Amino acid sequence: MDEREMYGEMNALLAAIAKAFDIEAEQAARAVEAGEVAIDMQEDPLGERYLAARYQGRSAKIYQGAIRYEPRQS
């Protein structure tokens, strides 16, 4: 992977995190840098891979082309 491709992938990931948590991309980047966003690679029961992201008590499953939300924990 060349450097331009890596930056493109990182920008796509930050944009997805921003969209999932309804924040600006810059805020998403700062939150990731500060360790405030937890990201795990996971697979659902159908074998589809996604990123499980958590930020400020909210959770989202980021799939290629889709975002699914987890119920809020009380």
Keywords summarizing the entry:
2 helices; single chain; 4 strands; alpha+beta; 38% helix; four-stranded antiparallel beta sheet; globular; 74 residues
Protein model, in words:
The chain is α+β, with helices and mostly antiparallel strands. The protein has one domain (3-69). The chain is 38% helix and 32% strand. The chain contains 2 helices and 4 strands. The chain has a 4-stranded antiparallel β-sheet. Strand 3 and strand 4 (66-69) form a beta hairpin. The longest helix has 19 residues, at 3-21. It is globular and about 35 Å long. The mean pLDDT is 90.
Uncertain residue segments:
none
Total E-strand runs: 4
Radius of gyration: 13 Å
Order of helices and strands: HHEEEE
Helix content: 25-40%
Q: In the residues, how many domains can be counted?
A: 1
Query: Helix/strand/pairing class, anyone?
Result: alpha+beta
Across the major sheet, the strand order is: 1-2-3-4
Largest sheet: 4 strands, antiparallel
Q: Identify the overall geometry.
A: globular
Number of helices: 2
Proportion of residues in extended strands? 25-35%
> Termini distance?
41 Å
Query: What's the average pLDDT?
Result: 90
